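Lecture 7 notes. Example A: sequence first, then its structure tokens.
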Amino acid sequence: MYFSAPNESGILDHRVVRDGSEPVFVPMRVFPNGSGAEIIVTLFQWPGLSDAYFERDAETTSKDLNTLKRLLESDQGI
């Protein structure tokens, strides 16, 4: 996985590389919200990607974001 260069704009765009396939671009942003923040991830269903694979990818992304939320809200942080 390759992330965008560190910046102060909340841009966390990254590319995911899976098993020799072409890298997949994943836009990701962090926006301040009161004393916290909101994270927005955009998933694209690229041509040739089955509905089942896209749904599985969306579920995995949701689980990852829930794990991130749990870690950030815990006493330990990350």
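Example B, a different protein, same format:
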Amino acid sequence: MKRSFTILVERDPESNWLVGEVAELPGCYSQAPDLPGLEANIAEAIRAYLKTEEPEEPLSDFVGTWRVEVTV
């Protein structure tokens, strides 16, 4: 069975590597120096997560993101 997951990608300012977080799987992260590497690493992280974690509740569905500007 195939399932799609949403990956949030940020760049680590210290290492300059990309860090991916799976929105639907709490605590599922990976990193790589480029997007092709991150895609491979995050797919491996998802497979490992799903093999080892028994979710007590149904997995969430990602809805979206937006940016909010605030004055600090």
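Note on Example B: The CA atoms of residues 8 and 66 lie 12 Å apart. The radius of gyration is 14 Å.
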